[in-house]
Amino acid sequence: MGRVGLVALLMFCGLAIGTIGWRRSLGLAFLLSAAGAGTVVYRSATYSRHYGITDASITLSSTLLLLLVAAIIVEARGERAVPWVPLFLFTVGGVSLLLLYWGDQSQQRAGLLLYVSALLAFGVGRWLGENATPRYEVLVAIGLSSVTAAHLVAATFQSRGELVGTSGDPAARDWVLNSHRMLGFYNHPSTLGKTTFLLLFFLLPLTMSRSRVARGSAQIGIVLGFIASFLTVSRANVAASACAVLIWILINRKAVSNGARIATAVAVGAATFGNLGAISALETRNQADPTGGPRDQLLSIGLHQIADTPWFGVGANYYSEFVGRYDPYAATGFPVHNTFLLGVAELGIPLAVVFFSPVLLTVMIGWQRWQRNGFLDARTAAMVATVPGTLLITLTGWGMLSEASLLLWYAALGNLATRGPEVLVSTDKSSNGDAAVPGTFSSHPDGTSPSVATMNASN
Q: What is the mean pLDDT of residues 86-97?
């Protein structure tokens, strides 16, 4: 969204300081910037063409700067916002490989900074989830829904041939006018689709907030996000979002009424925007490219490279340069279309295991909490709902590692690694010996919800 979006973001979060405090306001600013409201603050003057997860040299964005400031301030107050163990292991291992094995190229330094920042984003996202207040929930629901609305407005103008939000980029012009795939304020349609999917990690739990404003804003954000994703004609992203909302409705009986409203609004919105050419564009794309390019060849090349350099990889953000020496696909910006395999190819198996540990950790925490407590809280239910979509996107593409998606993804994982406020589905006996009704809010004798009463025991 450029400087205008950044100014609006800072004004919104500045006004929020008096309501939720400095630390939460900075965390909120980071989330909004990661969702597309931010911009590049500094880019090296010696810019060269490069295909990778980030630029060819270190670039400072508002998202990265806000992340660093938020983490520093929270840690300075004696609260934990940094996952020190994986961050230490990854940083030491990554810097060692950078200096001793990879060759210390500018692309690798930029890539390593992005990977390290993602681990930091996981910690900040988890801190925000653990310290969420009702007022914070209202502001984050309004903020994320507003960013989504801005993307949708830009995508709507683009669908009518107006290049709003593209900054005159020739590639963006080609996406919009020739491929009929809308971008929002990004430079690639798939990025917008991934953003709207990742925002479900925050918005789905907020539909169960105690605040009516937060619930309503989250529901609006989900509907607008799905419509925006639909206009991108990104098949995996649209399917992932639809799958997440459907699973959320199925596992959450209390949300049936809310889910029905969401599903109805999504259906109506999709039908309305169908006359803008999105449906025909999707049909045309399926007919012209049913498999999404030479994915089998890309997979074979990626596996071959992993077999050649299994322990140390080819270097962070360096797949295109290294593999492109012998593979024309990689040389022209087509790496292995699998998020986890690309990470392994770049980092090597040991370092990739450390980096992807928050993904597995989030799933394990949610599963253990569900089994131990006998119910799904809001964020655990959102984790269950989004896992299939996450696998669909990560196993069929590499874009989740891109700078435009990675920090938001890991912050979203951190948010889901914490307990949500309410019970959604009960699978055990309540504390008074009566069976809790699935999908209802049951309480302990002191009036607190089971999730609140057992918070200390399960975290």
A: 97
